[in-house]
Amino acid sequence: MARDPHSRAGAPVMASWLITFRSALCKARAQFRVIRSKGTEQAGTGEYEHNKAAGIYSCAACQTPLYRSSTKFDSGSGWPAFFDGKPLLY
Hints:
23% of the residues lie in helices and 12% in strands. With 90 residues, the protein is an alpha+beta fold. It has two domains: 1-42, no CATH class; 49-90, no CATH class. The chain is elongated.
């Protein structure tokens, strides 16, 4: 393991690729749990709760369009909510 010459007492520094890999692995496990095992993330912690970007939300597993961002509203539940689940794609 590499050592950072600027760290205290030469503490080992984890390679950035390993941090990236571990982060991706954790995300993949969480996504699998939600998609395939009917799990959910903790309310208020999702990356899309406060997202205001225009676009279409699609299924993470099969990429089927699910909701338009313009139909999103704050339900107060901690998860994104939509008032129309049938996006029209032109």
